[in-house]
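can u do me a favor
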């Protein structure tokens, strides 16, 4: 998993919404940080891990000790 994907999922696990993830990444100078890129990365991860929601993805990755 790429570093940016890990950061996105960590923020989702903390309860951030996609637009809040984008703002947080922008504030920290992390790129890419656009909402569309974040959505695409989340969807790709959800497909890879068979997650139905963002929360489900965070739970699965926590269980797998990615987070």
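np, heres the sequence
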């Amino acid at each position: 998993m790429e570093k940016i994907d890990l950061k996105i999922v960590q923020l989702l696990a903390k309860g951030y919404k996609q637009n809040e993830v984008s703002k947080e990444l922008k504030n920290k100078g992390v790129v890419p940080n656009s909402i569309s890129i974040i959505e695409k990365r989340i969807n790709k991860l959800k497909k890879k891990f068979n997650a139905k929601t963002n929360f489900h993805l965070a739970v699965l990755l926590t269980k797998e000790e990615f987070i």
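Residues 8 and 21 are 7 Å apart (CA to CA). hope that helps!!
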